[in-house]
Amino acid sequence: MTANRSPDSGNVAVSDADLVRYIDGELTLDERHRMDAVLKRDAAMTDRLAVLRRRSARLSTLLAAAGPTAVETEAANPATANPAPTPAIPAADVASIASARTARASRTSAQSAGRFRGPADRGGRVWLRAAIVLLTVLGVAMAVPPVRAWVVDRLERITGQPAEPPSPAVAPAVPAEHFGVRFAVEGASFSIEMQAVQRTGRLIVRAAAGEEGSADVQGAYGGESFVVIPVRQLLRVQNTAESRADYVVTLPSHVRSATVRLADGRELPFALGNGVTERIVELTR
Amino acid sequence: MDAASLYAEHHPALYRYLVRLTGDADLAADAAQETFTRLLEKPPRDEHPRAWLFTVATNVVRKWSNRRCRRAELLGAHEGRAAVSDPPVAPDRATEQAETRSAVHRALDSLSEKERTILLMREEGFSHREIADAVQTTTGSVGTMIARALDKLAAQLPLDAEEFL
Question: Is B29 close to A89, i.e. CB distance below 8 A?
C-alpha cells in the first residue's frame, strides 16, 4: 500500500494516491482495468479502497450537512426554482463589485497595507497594460487564418516537426461495460458532470426507490466515445462535443437535490423529491 | 466573456467552497468579491474560467490567511453562525447544523492549508490536474494528500463510525 507505484507498472502494490485516482475517475482506461485486476487479487487493498471511498462519501455528506449550498437554497424555495443557480449573495449588477472594491480599498487602507493590493497596485500597471495590449494584438492576429497559417508554418520550420493538432477531449474507444453502471449513493445530494456540451442529446435524471443509482447511455451514438464513471457523490460523463446521445441517470429516492455541471462551466442545480421524479437537461450546443 | 453570467453561474459554488475553506462567511464573501473583481480587471483567456476562479480565490485566501489572528478572531466570533443569505431553518435543524458545521470546521482546521484546499477543490469536482495546478504540486501528490487528509479527518469526524448521521 505504501509503495509508490502506478497500476500500469504491472506490480501488485499500488499507493494510496493510485486508489484515490481510481475513486476519482482519474485513471486511464488501461490503468482502471489493471487496477480492477489488482483489486480482485488483493483483499487488503480492496479494504483500503473501501475505507477511502466511505470516508470520501461521508465527508461529502458532512460538508453538505454543515452548511447551505446553492442547491439547498433553491430546494428550500421550490416556488422560485429555476435552472440558473441563485447567488448566495445577491448581486444584481456585477459592476457594483468594482465600486465596492473602491470603497473597501479606502476602508482597509487604514487597517493594513497590502491586503487588497494586486500586482497592478504595486507599480507594474504600465507594464501590465503593455503586456495586455501585446497579447490582445497577438490573439487577434492569430484569429486571422493566413496569419495563423504563417505562424504555424514558421514554427514547423523552426522545430522541424509538424504542429500538433489539438488533442481530443476524451480518450477514444470505450468498451461497452462502461454503460449501465451501478453505484451507491450516500447523502441527499448528488452531482453529475458532463465533460462536453454535445451536439445533440439530453440528460434525463430520474428518482427511483432503492439505495443504488444507475447510469446508462441511450439513443444513437455511433462513432463517438463515452465513459460513464461514478466518482463518490459525482457521476463523471466523459464524452465529446460531437456526441449525440441521451444519458439516463437514476438516483435513489433519498436524493433530494442534484447538480449538473456542464463543460462550459454552467452549473444547473435542481431539487428532487416532493413529487418531482424526473428532470431533463438539454445538452445540445 | 460575460462577467455577469460568470458571476451568476459560478458565485454560489465559489462562495460555498470559500466558506468551507475559511470557516468564515464574511471572509468568504470578501474573497469571492475580490476574485470577481480580478475577473473584471484581468479576464482569463481560458475557455473554462471555473478553474481560474477557484485558483485565484484560493490564492486570495492564502494571502489573507497569513493574518491567522484575524481569522481566529473571526472564527471565534462567528462560530456556529449561519452563512450570508441562508434560508431560514427550523430551530432543531439549525442547532444540529451548527454543531455539524462547528465539528467539520474544527476538523478541517486541523489540516494543513494545502491539504484543506486540495480536499475542498476535490469536493467541488475538480480534476487532480486542475487541483495540482491551483496549489502548484503534482497530480501524484494530490492523491497522496487526499488520502492523508481523509486519514486525519477520520480521527475527528465519524467517517468510520458504525452509525453515521
Answer: yes
